[in-house]
Design a protein that fits this description.
With 247 residues, the protein is mainly alpha-helical. The protein has 11 helices and 6 strands. It has a two-stranded antiparallel ribbon with strand order 1-2.
Length: 247
């Protein structure tokens, strides 16, 4: 059996002057103290250890990071949001794929694996020019659906139980691309990036409740926009787009 290809790194270089040479990292320490710097370093360690050049970012890794740094989960989320806004992590790829990566991380990774025989990287996630001959860019879904084989008897039993249970749809945060496509389909003037950033900053809450349907929220912004346009010719504001109760 072929030996599985290693993805991550055993170690990574750390610039001893990174907290002084980079204004954003210095700003991180100024705002959050040692907790901010520790969060970033722990996050680098996890990225390089696992996939090597990115990490899927959702509730699970954020909770684990909060445990490792020994801080509240809300502080972790605030730090991550600032790291994205300041450009330490790529904002576009986070919006499209919910991953954390950067050119700096990818340059470090590519340099570290240059002696390996063959290395695969997902082409859609690459931010830098590939110069290594051993790097193979692949098309891959980083969020594959899990497949479990079951017997016909078990499947029949589960199907019957499923029909009896009320269907509860789990809310999935949309990507900026999905928002763009839906707004284009409806031919409205809602700004997808503004919509995403607004609800991302609020933890995808509508008022005090968790959002259930992002398409309905887009339509609410659309209706508020139309009301503003058909009324008095006043200057547009972001609050013209927001559902009542979100201001």
């Amino acid at each position: 059996m072929a030996r599985p290809q290693k993805k991550g790194l055993d170690y990574f270089p750390l610039d001893v002057m990174m907290d002084r040479a980079d204004d954003d990292i210095e700003m991180l320490e100024a705002k959050y103290g040692t907790n901010g710097f520790a969060t970033l370093i722990k996050l680098y360690m996890k990225i390089y250890q696992d996939d090597g050049y990115y990490i899927k970012w959702n509730e699970k890794p954020s909770l684990l990071l909060a445990k490792r740094v020994n801080v509240d989960i809300n502080l972790i989320n605030s730090i991550i949001n600032d790291l994205i806004e300041w450009g330490i992590f790529d904002k576009k790829l986070y919006g499209e794929y919910h991953i954390l990566t950067s050119k700096r991380i990818q340059h470090t990774y590519i340099d570290a694996v240059k002696k390996r025989k063959s290395v695969e990287m997902v082409g859609s996630l690459v931010l830098v020019e590939i110069v290594n001959n051993n790097i193979n860019l692949i098309n891959s879904d980083i969020y594959p659906q899990s497949k479990v084989k079951k017997s016909k008897v078990d499947k029949s039993k589960e199907d019957k139980e499923d029909k009896e249970k009320p269907v509860i749809k789990k809310f999935i945060i949309p990507t900026v691309k999905e928002l763009e496509e839906y707004c284009k389909e409806r031919k409205n003037n809602v700004n997808p990036n503004k919509f995403f950033d607004f609800y991302e900053s609020k933890g995808w809450l509508v008022g005090k409740n968790k959002m259930k349907n992002w398409k309905a929220a887009v339509r609410t912004w659309e209706n508020n926009n139309n009301t503003s346009t058909n009324g008095n010719n006043k200057e547009e504001s972001i609050y013209d787009y927001l559902p009542k109760g979100d201001n």
